[in-house]
Amino acid sequence: MLNERSGPEQICEIGRRLYARGMVAANDGNISIRLGAGKILTTPTGVCKGLMSPEMLVTVDAEGRVQSAGKPSTEILMHLFIYRERPEVNAVVHAHPIYATGFATAGLALESCVAAEIIATLGSIPLAPYGTPSTPELAESLRPHVHRADAILLANHGVVAMGTNLEEAYFRLERVEHYAQIVAVSRQLGGEQLLPRSEVEKLFALRGKYGQTGLNPGCATCTGECIGAACLNYDSKYEVTGEDALGAIVARVLHRVRDHCDCAHEE
Ligand SMILES: [Zn+2]
């Protein structure tokens, strides 16, 4: 756990990085860390995160009651929700990085097994439904994902990332944005290619080496192309069985036949 003395400096440094990298504009974004005795240290509201000094930070208790001078982040409810649900999390970073927020605004999660580094480290990045910022609705929107992901896209809003310390939370946010840029570029080049199951399994085996604990290793939409039901995120609603399976095979064959047969033009 970060100690109270070094925490404020770390928050200011992460604020500078967020602002310098364009992951927030103006006064956007917020950062917090868990202190001892149920207290949380958070960035203040209405302040540029690139220009903070330690005395500007605000301490609140687990219910968000202010314990120091200043006004806490308007998103403190989202941070408190994460700390309540994930006892091992000691830091939360929220920002609006352009590419990742673009995906969140287009209603697109980043959950497919396509990038080796992401599968071996962060795992899939789900999309939480829209919730009005600064209200309990936003915190509640995280509920379906908070136990299976360390970084979550917030629909029509931004990204939130968490970690056992502030650097880990920030690096996760940075990874999400970098990955979102890669996916956006690969879509301009014809679309990302799903890694085959055998390759995803090898990447899972590497997770220990990367210091990953097994949370959220893969995609939520795998249908057998990658690791299917072995994935912790695997959702059986995507499974194709019985008549559906036969229908899916017939549709695929017909599609291939139509694509490759040019007899219609030979009459
Ligand atoms: Zn925001």
Major sheet size, sense and barrel closure: 7 strands, mixed
Distance from N terminus to C terminus (CA atoms, Å) equals: 75 Å
Spatial sequence of strands, sheet with the most strands:
3-2-1-4-7-6-5
* Total number of strands: 7
Helical proportion? Answer: 25-40%
Summarize the structure in words.
The structure is a single chain. The protein has helices at residues 7-20, 76-85, 98-105, 116-120, 136-141, 166-188, 197-206, 242-260, and strands at residues 30-34, 40-42, 58-60, 91-95, 127-128, 151-154, 158-163. It is α+β, with helices and mostly antiparallel strands and 267 residues long. The chain has a seven-stranded mixed β-sheet, sandwiched between helices. Zinc ion is lined by residues 28, 94, 96, 133, 157-158. Residues 28, 94, 96, 133, 157-158 line the site of zinc ion.
Brief rundown of the structure:
With 267 residues, this protein is of the alpha+beta class. 36% of the residues lie in helices and 10% in strands.
List keywords for this structure.
267 residues; binds zinc ion; 7-stranded mixed beta sheet; 8 helices; 7 strands; alpha+beta; globular
